[in-house]
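new request in #modeling-help
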Amino acid sequence: MSSILSHSIDEYIKMVTSFHGYPAPGVLIGGFMVDLAYTKLPKDGLYEVICETAKCLPDAIQLLTPCSTGNQRLKVIDTGRYAFTLYEKRSGEGVRVYLDWTLLDEWPEIKGWFLKLTPKEAQDEGVLIREIKEAGSDICGMEKVQVKLDSLNKRKKSSISICPSCNEAYRTSDGALCPACKGSVLPYGRMSKTPSKRHKSA
Amino acid sequence: MSSILSHSIDEYIKMVTSFHGYPAPGVLIGGFMVDLAYTKLPKDGLYEVICETAKCLPDAIQLLTPCSTGNQRLKVIDTGRYAFTLYEKRSGEGVRVYLDWTLLDEWPEIKGWFLKLTPKEAQDEGVLIREIKEAGSDICGMEKVQVKLDSLNKRKKSSISICPSCNEAYRTSDGALCPACKGSVLPYGRMSKTPSKRHKSA
């Protein structure tokens, strides 16, 4: 494989290093997976993604599709499988692409890494990256899927209320208190609430 | 405000447009929030983020910090509040920055947008963006927090198994079947599983 969408492999590796912190094998393979998905979809669709793992793959999707965590067109439903579904948001038609372990016998370094058969200290990163570049999307499976749009549990629009406990704005539909004050969902306690007007000199 | 970290405002708006799809007000404000958080933290920390909303703010964090969804240094715990906590991952010390609605009286367009007091069709986007640029981080509050690291429920490392139902790789620690085959967590059915070796001609 010599390119990922409109990018050369080396360009893509630079993008991954900048965004993800390092050229993680999973994000590199994810690039070929996204490239493969687009070959089977009309160019003019309005796409969203369901990603089945929180590890690495979401960053390939964010770098190569218009879908991001913050624009809420990328949703992670963590099944632990290295797979995502790219689908047209109005019709629900899409493709699911996954890393297919049954195709890895030709690529022993990828197989040892993906199935955790090779201990980290015994992995040869250079060989791993070379195998990933050579394999491209040949190690991926793909299937058509029909996303059930009404089961996506998209949050309904809500007006905004001020929480009487923390005095911050939140969705009225969440009830009389914001979710943070209702239950201990956050893993921290407040130490000192700096008066907002004075944060510059605090 | 004339800059966001090392970027001019206009540079940052271009980054947001490219990554998020358009210069969303929430991502612009998020930029000033991240800038403010960094003023209070040592430069050499190894940081992670808990973001309290899935809307817009995660993209400001991904653009301006080393934390992303795919490298798992950004975690969304959706309380609906427009806030995030940037903390040092080994000590748990950090700051929580939030958009403070009590400071919005001087910025009527931001107030109308943030508290959903102004209907969408009555919003003046030009005025809104101008107010956001002028206000910078003056509309944000900040507080010190101590993150309880042991309550973050980080997933333990697991070996990999092959699911006897779907024949895909998943975390052994998830049980005898992968989470997708165990329950109906995914909003789609499979239509046709293209034999992997032949996807190019399928």
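bot summary: The beta strands of chain B are 3-4, 7-8, 47-51, 74-76, 83-88, 93-99, 140-147, 160-162, 169-171, 188-194.
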